[in-house]
Design brief:
Layout: H1 3-28, H2 33-45, H3 50-88, H4 93-121, H5 126-141
Helix pairs in contact: 1-3, 2-5, 3-4
C-alpha cells in the first residue's frame, strides 16, 4: 500500500470513531428528561416540609455520586466502541462486545434511576405522591425533544 492509502484508511477510521461517539452521545444515551421533570416538581411545585427537603437532598446527593460513576463507565464504553470501530471497520466481534457492554451500563443506570425515583416518592405525602406520579407518567410518555 502506498502512504496515501494508509492516510486514507486512518482518516476513515478516525471519522468512523467520531461518528460512533456522536451516535452514542445523541442516540444511545439521551438526556435524562424524566429526572429533570422530577427535580422541577420536587423543588418548584411541591411544598415540602423541612424533613422532606432534608431527606430528598440526602437521596439526591447519594444518587448523584452513583450516577456520575455510571456516566463515567458509559464514557469509557463509548471510547471502547470507538476503538473497536476503528479496529474492525465494521460490525465485528469487538464492536458487538462494546455495544453489549454499553447497553448493560445504560440499563443499570436506568434501574438505579428508577430506584432513586421511588425512594424520593416514599418521602412524599399521598397528595404530593399523586402529583409526582402524574409528572413521571407525563415525562415518560411525552415525545422526545431534541435539543439542537
Amino acid at each position: 500500500m502506498t502512504a496515501r492509502r494508509y492516510i486514507l484508511v486512518a482518516l476513515v477510521a478516525f471519522a468512523a470513531s467520531l461518528a460512533a461517539v456522536f451516535i452514542a452521545r445523541i442516540w444511545i444515551a439521551p438526556e435524562p428528561r424524566v429526572e429533570s421533570e422530577v427535580h422541577a416538581l420536587l423543588h418548584q411545585r411541591l411544598t415540602l416540609d423541612a424533613a422532606q427537603e432534608k431527606r430528598i437532598h440526602e437521596l439526591e446527593a447519594a444518587f448523584a455520586t452513583r450516577r456520575e460513576a455510571l456516566e463515567a463507565e458509559m464514557r469509557a464504553d463509548n471510547q471502547r466502541l470507538a476503538d473497536a470501530i476503528a479496529a474492525e471497520h465494521g460490525y465485528g466481534p469487538k464492536v458487538g462486545e462494546a455495544v453489549d457492554r454499553s447497553h448493560h451500563v445504560m440499563g443499570q443506570l436506568q434501574k438505579e434511576t428508577l430506584q432513586h425515583i421511588f425512594a424520593m416518592r416514599a418521602v412524599l405525602r399521598p397528595d404530593q405522591a399523586a402529583q409526582f406520579d402524574a409528572a413521571i407518567v407525563k415525562a415518560l410518555t411525552q415525545p422526545a425533544q431534541i435539543n439542537r
